Recover the amino acids of this structure.
């Protein structure tokens, strides 16, 4: 029997196990949405903005490990996906985005709602397709999912002209694909793994530097085994949080610009750095010349271009982190069983790390009158027992969440790490909630960020997603204000938000629940109430507008030279400047 | 240092822009790029001339390899290779200069492929140095227009065999 392009799309998505699509219709995709009208096995979640749809697909993918799917119309629908595609590309998130396109005969004619989305999205997708013939459609969908989910995962876009959705052909879904020019390396080189094992056995002051690749590869068990077997302390990037339990004895917490002192100092002092699924991002390394200056470096990554891109590596291993770690653990098991008491060997190193931990722990001072933002995060952690899926937007609140919520499990901290997209967190939370209706999902946001995709409150209410939003409301674009204070002599150019909306009323206007805390002793009650309600809730925490994120490595500075509190003014009227605002490493 | 990189790609629309977009997007330099099909019509061959230090070239080769449509990347500069470029040069050739133009064309084994009462169009191919030398000699006559193909290059067969032999030894 012959099927139309729309039906083929639907049947193919079913074959790929897709259960949820995020999207918003328009002229050229009406046929597809019509086909979905009676479909029971695929739920379509209507968003209020296409950017929301893409971020939801990302949240779904990050929380589940399965590809997220979005469906939007041509032209403006398609261009609204660009930020999300770039975001997914930077964070290696597997999503498949289907955009409608004007009919084939009209492509290139500046037709109504035409945009060259294949051209526009080329640099921000792992791959993209324009479907020219309905006969190719099934094959293309198969390849799209294959490319999105294998190797270093990423976003794939399929541009589907209207006439192709109506054209008919015989449907046969391919069982397998092989693309001759695309063969990601999965197994690591055995000889290199042996070298790595040798280096680990010999090291006295080793550190594991764990990135988002470990989460992507579902290698959290293997990382834990490696750390415990070899007794190596672990530090994580923002994207790696959750890959190793935050409360584990071997955890040093996050490293980098707002990382913990002990983590940054340990990396600076170590004699062996094992980088796993991490890419030496500039937010992590600070001044590269001073990052891990005197150690041997092992780098494990599925993407060969990540290796030696901006950092020297002595032992590179290309492969899927999970496979490589299995082999590495295997190779290490023998030598470590013969190695006597490892804890004894590492004693001086652990003593040093303990000393650093005590010397410079994470600190803030909660007074009686104003709520400190860090206090809110600590309470959230306490009252959810660290079991929630937490998404954040971008800014100070994101860093406080990373510092003060101790993530236990992989895939429970969803973040825009690579692109740093304000407006990501709330829709991502909805995507995670769509995947796990029973789980507790919290979006920690700022009063600036939440306003970038707040319209999705309507989606949350309609879908009855019990997502909790915790706004750390400081009336500022807080992170920008912090930089202006530290680097631009308190000139708060365009960072004061002045009239932020009444978030409680706004929540109510959408049909959600709004709660507010203005004093420290109200924080716990508000959170308890939010957790009790089985509805979307917006919590407006009115926090100290002048609180800054510390510790901090000044832009362009070295990770060991961290700053722990506001620098004292030099003269009464002139605040001290921390570093060069024109550094190539920027906000 | 200048490098010549040979890239085999799927012969599909959009591939050229993926490759050139990779260079522009990552700030790599393209000095020349030429493309044509191979004996297998589904595969195109690109010759890319670029410049950069070891680290940049390593990144260029890896990034090219990472593109889904790229089948094979070879840095020809690592071994022996032969290269050619072709140019079409239109020069003024007034009666008093015509003999000189012919003589230069002859020395460089070029060919006149079009002539008019006031001009010649000369076809020349060879190594870049040769083409540049010829252009320099023609310059006094007055050059009206030059069109160059960019370089194409291919590994020397002997070198290729040697590399294969070495690889076999290395792999035991
Ligand atoms: C889409 C987008 N625009 C601009 C920025 C630059 N930026 C980074 S942090 C920040 C301030 C965020 O303010 P808010 O959401 O209120 O969070 P806070 O820092 O106050 O916690 C801005 C504007 C960005 N990351 N993303």
């Amino acid at each position: 029997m012959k099927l139309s392009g729309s039906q083929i799309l639907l049947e193919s998505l079913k074959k790929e196990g897709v259960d949820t699509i995020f999207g918003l219709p328009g002229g050229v995709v009406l046929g597809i949405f019509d086909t979905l009208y009676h479909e029971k096995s695929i739920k379509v979640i209507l968003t209020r903005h296409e950017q929301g749809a893409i971020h939801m697909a990302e949240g779904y993918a990050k929380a589940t490990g399965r590809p997220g799917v979005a469906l939007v119309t041509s032209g403006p629908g398609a261009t609204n996906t660009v930020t999300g595609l770039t975001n997914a590309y930077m964070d290696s998130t597997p999503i498949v985005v289907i955009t409608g396109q004007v009919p084939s005969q009209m492509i290139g004619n500046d037709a109504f709602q035409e945009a060259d989305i294949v051209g526009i999205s080329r640099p921000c997708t792992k791959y993209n397709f324009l479907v020219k013939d309905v006969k190719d459609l099934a094959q293309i969908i198969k390849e799209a999912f294959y490319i999105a989910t294998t190797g270093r995962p990423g976003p794939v876009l399929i541009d589907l002209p209207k006439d192709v959705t109506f054209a008919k052909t015989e449907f046969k879904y391919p069982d397998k694909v092989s693309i001759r020019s695309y063969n990601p390396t999965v197994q690591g080189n055995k000889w290199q793994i042996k070298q790595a094992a040798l280096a680990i056995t010999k090291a006295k002051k080793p550190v594991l530097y764990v990135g988002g690749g470990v989460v992507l590869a579902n290698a959290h068990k293997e990382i834990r085994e490696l750390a415990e077997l070899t007794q190596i302390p672990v530090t994580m990037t923002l994207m790696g949080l959750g890959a190793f339990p935050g409360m584990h004895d071997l955890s040093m917490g996050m490293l980098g610009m707002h990382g913990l002192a002990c983590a940054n100092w340990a990396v600076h002092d170590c004699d062996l750095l094992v980088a796993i699924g991490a890419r030496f991002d500039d937010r992590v390394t600070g001044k590269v010349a001073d990052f891990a200056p005197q150690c041997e470096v092992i780098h494990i990554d599925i993407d060969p271009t990540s290796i030696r891109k901006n950092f020297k590596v002595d032992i590179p291993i290309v492969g899927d982190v999970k496979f490589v770690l299995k082999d590495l653990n295997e190779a290490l098991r023998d030598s470590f069983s013969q190695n006597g008491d490892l804890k004894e060997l590492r004693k001086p190193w652990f003593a040093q790390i303990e000393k650093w931990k005590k010397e410079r722990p994470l600190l803030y001072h909660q007074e009686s009158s104003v709520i400190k933002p860090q206090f809110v995060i600590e309470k959230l952690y306490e009252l959810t027992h660290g079991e929630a899926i937490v998404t954040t937007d971008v800014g100070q609140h994101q860093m406080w969440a990373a510092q003060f919520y101790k993530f236990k499990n992989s895939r429970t901290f969803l973040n825009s790490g690579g692109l740093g997209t304000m407006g990501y967190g709330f829709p991502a939370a909805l995507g995670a909630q769509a995947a796990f209706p029973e789980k507790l999902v919290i979006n920690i946001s700022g009063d600036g960020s939440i306003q970038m995709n707040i319209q999705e409150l309507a989606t949350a209410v309609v879908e009855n997603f019990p997502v909790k939003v915790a706004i750390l409301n400081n009336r500022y674009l807080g992170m920008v204000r912090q930089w202006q204070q530290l680097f631009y002599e308190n000139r708060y150019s365009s960072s004061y938000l002045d009239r932020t909306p009444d978030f409680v009323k706004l929540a109510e206007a959408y049909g959600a629940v709004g709660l507010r805390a203005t004093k420290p002793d109200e924080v716990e009650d508000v959170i308890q109430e939010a957790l009790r309600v089985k509805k979307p809730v917006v919590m407006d925490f009115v926090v100290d507008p002048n609180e800054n994120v510390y510790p901090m490595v000044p832009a362009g500075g070295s990770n060991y030279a961290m700053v722990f509190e506001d620098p004292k003014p030099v003269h009464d009227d002139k605040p001290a400047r921390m570093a060069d605002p024109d550094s190539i490493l920027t906000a | 240092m200048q490098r010549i990189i040979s890239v085999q790609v799927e012969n599909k629309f959009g591939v050229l822009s993926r490759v050139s977009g990779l260079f522009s997007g990552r700030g790599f330099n393209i000095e020349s790029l030429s493309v044509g099909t191979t004996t297998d019509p589904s595969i195109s061959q690109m010759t890319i001339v670029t410049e950069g230090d070891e680290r940049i070239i390593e990144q260029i080769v890896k990034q090219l390899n990472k593109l889904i449509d790229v089948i094979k990347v070879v840095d020809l500069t690592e071994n022996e290779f032969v290269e050619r470029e072709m140019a079409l040069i239109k020069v003024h050739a007034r009666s008093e200069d015509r003999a000189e133009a012919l003589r230069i064309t002859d020395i460089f084994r070029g060919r006149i492929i079009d002539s008019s009462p006031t001009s010649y169009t000369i076809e020349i191919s060879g190594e870049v140095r040769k083409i540049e030398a010829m252009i320099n000699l023609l310059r006094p006559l007055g050059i009206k227009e030059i069109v160059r193909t960019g370089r194409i290059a291919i590994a020397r067969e002997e070198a290729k065999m040697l590399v294969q032999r070495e690889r076999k030894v290395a792999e035991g």
